[in-house]
Amino acid sequence: MRVLVISDVHANRAALEAVLDDAEQFRYEAVWCLGDLVGYGPEPDWCITRVRLLRERCPLTALVGNHDWAVLDKMEVDEFNPEARRTVLWTRRHVSAENLAWLSDLPVDPVVEQGRFTLAHGSPRDSIWEYILDPFTALDNFQSDALLTPFCLVGHTHVPVIYALIEGEPVVRVRTPVHDAAVQLGGAGGRRAILNPGSVGQPRDGDPRAAYAILDTERLTWLPRRVPYAIEITQAHMRDAGLPERLITRLSFGW
Ligand code: ZN
Predict the structure, then answer these.
(1) CB crowding 57-74: b at 16 or more within 10 Å, else e
(2) Which residues have CB atoms below 5 A from the ion given as ligand 1?
(3) Ligand 1 centroid – CA 130 distance (Å)
(4) What is the bridge-based pairing of β-strands 161-166 and 60-62?
(5) Which of 41, 46, 49, 128 is most buried per CB count within 10 Å?
(6) In angstroms, what is the span from residue 98 Cα to ligand 1's centroid?
(7) How far is the CA of 167 from the centre of ligand 1 (A)?
(8) In this predicted model, what pLDDT tens digit does every residue of 142-177 receive, in sequence order?
(9) Mean pLDDT for the chain?
(10) Are the C-beta atoms of residues 164 and 175 closer than 8 Å to each other?
(11) What is the CA angle 60-65-69, rounded to 5?
């Protein structure tokens, strides 16, 4: 089965549209969305509706992320930095009651698909909050009871990466995926892996293009994709909405 894997859309409509257009060519049969549909960006309601509608095309598994969680008023916004807090409060006023209800029904804890793939926003240990930013944190997760499947898909850091556990020794190899270069999973590079597709709506690896991945669950291939989109359209909408300037500027640089 070919799965479209997206994460951290962050209310960026132009980026989401570009990703969905690009992904058409792969004739995906399921969508796994790893959280943070909203926060930061200017079109939260549109983005939630668009992802919800994907259910009419194929099975959709979507998780809640820390920004979604905050917009749902399930946590104190004081835990966010001032700019993120401002956008959380703005977002609450710009999502319909129906879409908020849909968001609040999404799972908070990790979800296992096909018995082999654990899906989480941050990490299997702490799906809402933990960032897997280094091989040590990845190793802790590989060794934790929260991760019992060979593969794990996470978002949250906005950086595309693969952490592969080397068999027989507690060593994690870090690999930066390259656009359109398929990675074979489960082979010599490590039988277990934690995979991050990067962020659709706010990349932070220095490449401003939208990021996503196509996972083939039978062939066990992971295809990282980068897609250019009309950044200036999102930025114009952010300005109109009065969202923080730093959040607008960073989209140009992918930081
Ligand atoms: Zn995020």
Answers:
(1) eeebbbbbbbbbbbbbee
(2) 8, 36
(3) 12
(4) unpaired
(5) 41
(6) 22
(7) 31
(8) 999 999 999 999 999 999 999 999 877 789 999 999
(9) 95
(10) yes
(11) 115
pLDDT digits (tens, 9 = 90+) for 207-238: 999 999 999 999 999 999 999 999 999 999 99
186 close to 164: Cβ distance less than 8 angstroms: no
Which of these, 47, 59, 52, lies nearest to 15 by C-alpha position? Answer: 47
For residues 122 and 145, give the distance between their C-alpha atoms in angstroms, rounded to a whole number: 16
Residue 14 in tokens? 């132009």
Q: Is the dihedral of CA 59, 65, 69, 71 positive or negative?
A: negative
pLDDT at position 189 is 54
Q: Which residue has the tokens 């598994």?
A: 61
CA Rg value for the chain: 17
What's the token pair of residue 187? 């082979």
Residues 130, 210: Cα–Cα separation, whole Å: 23
Report d(CA 219, CA 75) in Å as an integer.
Answer: 40
Q: How far is the CA of 6 from the centre of ligand 1 (A)?
A: 11
SS (H, E, C) the chain: CEEEEECCCCCCHHHHHHHHHHHHHHCCCEEEECCCCCCCCCCHHHHHHHHHHHHHCCCEEECCCHHHHHHCCCCCHHHCCHHHHHHHHHHHCCCCHHHHHHHHCCCCCCEEECCCEEECCCCCCCCCCCCCCCHHHHHHHHCCCCCCCCEEECCCCCCCEEEEEECCCCEEEEECCCCCCCEECCCCCCCEEEEECCCCCCCCCCCCCEEEEEEECCCCEEEEEEECCCHHHHHHHHHHHCCCHHHHHHHHHCC
Cβ atoms of 179 and 226 within 8 Å: the answer is yes
